[in-house]
Write a structure and sequence with these properties.
This protein has 212 residues and is α/β, with parallel strands linked by helices. The chain is 60% helix and 13% strand. The chain has two domains: 83 residues, Methyltransferase, Methionine Synthase (B12-binding Domains), Chain A, domain 1 (Orthogonal Bundle); 120 residues, Rossmann fold. The structure holds CO-5-methoxybenzimidazolylcobamide. The site of CO-5-methoxybenzimidazolylcobamide (B1M) has 29 residues, from α5, β3, β4 and α9.
């Protein structure tokens, strides 16, 4: 019976059904299910499915956003229990849109997907100068910094940040970049550790980078 509830919760998150996601999360908790098991066996698979469908053009940005919101609703119930049990995400990522750039829809999607994959995500917002990325990475002991840029005119700010982070001695922090005008070639040119074309691939890349 509980197996069905796990599947129903996965389906509810995938479809972006927030109320149902919250209700089923509570049903599982009331039945004595460990909070982490709900995350790992129902919520993360839901976002992975959505990510795969997005990569294959079976769903688009709006579907991904509503699924991420349903995930957030379920996580709001679970997070305090995880914290109380001393369970913390294994990895921390700082993410932001570079200086001069105010676009944040893609960056927010990447942040939500990373949260869905159980990363601790510190979102430093938009128009972020290098020193703010550096301070946030230091303060939170981040393993990963994610930079987003949507304008060709703000792409050079990514190189400034990569150089500033290396100069500040943050050599162990991996740097992942993305945004519509960004390419793998550009990532290579500026010395970033990786580039990802979309939010779902960003999660795969983030896992790969922090594990390396
Ligand atoms: Co702007 N804008 N905009 N804009 N805007 C673009 C980017 C543009 C291509 C439109 C166009 O002319 N066709 C163009 C850039 C041209 C260029 O540089 N070559 C442009 C321009 C020129 C401007 C202004 C300069 C306009 C003006 O004022 N004259 C101005 C600049 C403001 C500034 O930033 N300083 C401006 C302003 C705005 C709005 C404020 C009106 C609004 C932003 C609202 C917001 O973000 N809160 C806006 C919007 C909405 C767009 C378009 C229409 C849509 C962008 C978007 O949200 N896409 C965009 C045209 C377009 O892209 N078709 C455009 C959806 C989003 C999910 O995709 O952000 O690509 P995207 O993110 C993807 C991937 O790129 C990747 O994953 C995401 C999900 O799959 N990804 C990452 C993104 N970040 C990642 C980070 C990663 C990994 C993957 O790792 C860390």
């Amino acid at each position: 019976m509980l197996m069905n509830t796990f599947q129903e919760l996965t389906d509810a998150v995938e479809k972006g059904n927030r109320k149902e996601a919250a209700r089923l999360t509570q049903v599982l908790l009331d039945a004595g299910t460990a909070p982490l098991e709900i995350v790992e066996s129902a919520l993360v698979p839901a976002m992975s499915n959505v990510g795969e469908k997005f990569k294959n053009n079976q769903v688009f940005v709006p579907e991904m956003l509503i699924a991420a919101r349903a995930m957030k609703e379920a996580m709001a119930i679970i997070q305090p229990l995880l914290t109380a049990a001393g369970i913390v995400p294994k990895y921390t990522a700082v993410i932001g849109t570079v200086q001069g750039d105010l676009h944040d829809i893609g960056k927010n999607l990447v942040a939500m997907m990373l949260k869905g994959a159980n990363f601790n995500v510190i979102d430093v917002g938009i128009n972020v100068p290098p020193e703010k990325f550096i301070a946030a990475a230091r303060e939170n002991n981040a393993q990963l910094v994610g930079l987003s840029a949507l304008l060709t005119t703000t792409m050079p700010a990514m190189k400034t940040i990569v150089d500033a982070m290396r100069a500040a001695g943050l050599n162990n922090v991996k740097i992942m970049i993305g945004g519509a005008p960004i390419t793998q070639q550009f990532a290579n040119e500026i010395g970033a550790d990786g580039y990802s074309p979309d939010a779902a691939s960003a999660v795969d890349l983030a896992h790969k980078l922090v594990a390396a």
